[in-house]
Amino acid sequence: MSDTGPGHPGDWDRWADASRGGDPYPGIGCGKRIAMLGWAWPPMQEREGTGYNLVQSETALGLVARGHRVYFLRSGLSYSLRPGMHIRLRECWRGVACFDLFNSPNLASADRNFLNVRRQIAAPAHTQMVLAWCREVKAELVHVHSFEGLAFEVVPVLRAAGFPVVVTPHNYYALCPQVDLMHQERRTCDDFAGGERCVGCITAPDPGEEARRRAFDQSCDRMLGHGVGPALRRLPASLKRGIGAWRAGQPAILAPGRREPAPLRTGAAPHDRGNDQQRLLRTDTHLVVLNDYGDRRMAGVRALSEANAVLCPGRTLMQVHRAMGVDPRVMRHVPLGLPHIDEIIRERGEGPGGTPWTPGAGRPLRVAYMGSVKPNKGLGVLVEALAALARDLPAPIECEIHAEGGRRALGGPVASLPWVRWMGGYSPGDVAGIVGACDVGVFPNQGMENCPLVLLEFLAAGRPVLASSLGASADWVRPPDSGWLFDHTSPAALEALLRSLLSGTIPIPARAHVAASAGVPTFDSYMRGVLDAYAFACG
Predict the structure, then answer these.
(1) Which residue among 43, 103, 152, 223 is least packed, with the fewest CB closer than 10 Å?
(2) What is the CATH number for 13?
(3) What is the mean pLDDT of each run of 10 residues along the chain (539 residues)?
């Protein structure tokens, strides 16, 4: 089954120890053999899969450090011109054996697989290969970190084969093929209408064409170098355009030019009092089935219900899954903790940590946004609030926006405001400096977040957060001790909060008070929760 590394996956024990120069973990043989399933590559951490992969990879490293052997299988992202599915042992990363399954019938990430509904429910040949791999590595427990790239039937098949199965839902993918329970990425989908509302929800490619494109591009890249595959695939069209331009007497440009980022879509959907989180939690229409998408939700609910344990990082996520039919007996609340958040806590220290900002501080109020330009993160709402705020500033303010992309994505008058600074992308190593330099964080999410790391990072540093009241924000932000909540559909509500802070109407709490109120978990407490769930799953 393995094409690289040792000749057989079962030989990984000797190969991994040799590649590390010996086994640095005394007594590791006493630990369990844990198989992990997901779509993002653990060595990439947040660079592939963002927060989901950061949690997944740090969990794997935490298990290795505590004496367990960890085997990871990625599915849904790697494709090859070699016919059929196959598995390769790619590398041993800090003690984690990383395997890659090629040519999965389910593609990752979810937006690439949106139209592939029936295979999300069942893909027997693929599921049997996953089962065979779990047997090959002699797994004692299987931890599913994402169903993207897999079929939901993997859980009942593994259970029937005698494997304890633990699932961590990092989002709502088991319930929603769009992942975030957002209809057309604009508003919370509180009723999927038996699956009929899923039809056309997002623009998605044909999964067969996408798989063939990936197979060509990735195979060329592996043989000829990175970027060669896409260039070869585009070459005929580029030549055709060039010849046409030459015949027309125009300059021939064979390669596509650099595209400027599209202006950010601002604002939220019109407020609908019937379309909110409360209705989502109390409706009784979640398991109506009218089409394949309805069958898909039923399959996702069954998969989670048949797991030995479902580790929910957020209470709201647990409530939503329960409302949609997941067996409450298997769900456990295991709050997230991560090493870089521990570092933020250590840098904050135990003392008061400085005087909170006031209008008389003699400097601007420093506000920070961390996230992306995707609609579910709500940057558009912040941009509208800043544009309104700029008409009449009560006091000086500086707003730093940390997100991938260019400043032009802001569009409109906000892009020219001197006190709005576009800082670009960031990594976990940058976070301590970002949160340490601001007075207040802002998290205007428009989607049903699970357990946003951004919130934990701000709160661990003792910085209060302006957060929308949707999803997991209310799990962590407790007004007025650790921040303030506002209606996620209203940029005006966010603007009003910012004005109240600038005028001093709302005082900013001390850092130690914010941190004590939030109670952000440590990485060790998170790992204890994971290991407790493993013990429960293994009986």
Answers:
(1) 223
(2) 3.40.50.2000
(3) 43 47 37 95 94 96 96 97 94 96 96 96 97 97 98 98 97 94 86 91 94 93 76 64 57 45 48 60 76 95 97 93 94 95 83 77 95 86 93 93 76 81 90 93 89 93 94 90 92 96 95 91 96 93
Sort residue 95 into left (φ over 0), alpha (ψ -120 to 50) or beta: left
Token pair listed for 202: 């997002």
Q: Say whether both 196 and 216 belong to one domain.
A: no
Residue 275 within a domain = no
DSSP code at position 12: H
Boundaries of domain holding 196: 9-204+286-337+525-537
Residue with tokens 């927060």: 51
Within 13 A of 20's CA, how many CA atoms are on the CB side?
17
Q: Which two tokens stand for residue 150?
A: 């897999």
Q: Give the contacts of 223 (CB within 8 A, at least 6 positions apart).
A: none
Cis bond before residue 80 (omega within 30° of 0): no
Cβ count near 217 (within 10 Å): 18
Q: Report the SS3 class of residue 400.
A: strand
Number of structural domains in the chain: 3
Residue 252 lies in a domain: no
Beta bridge partners of 467: 443, 485
Residue 76's nearest CA partner among 45, 100, 44 is: 100
Sequence-distant (6+) residues with CB within 8 A of 156 are: 302, 303, 306
* 71 plus 100 within the same structural domain: yes
Complete DSSP assignment for 460-511: HTT--EEEESSTTHHHH--TTTSEEEE-TT-HHHHHHHHHHHHHTSSPPPPH
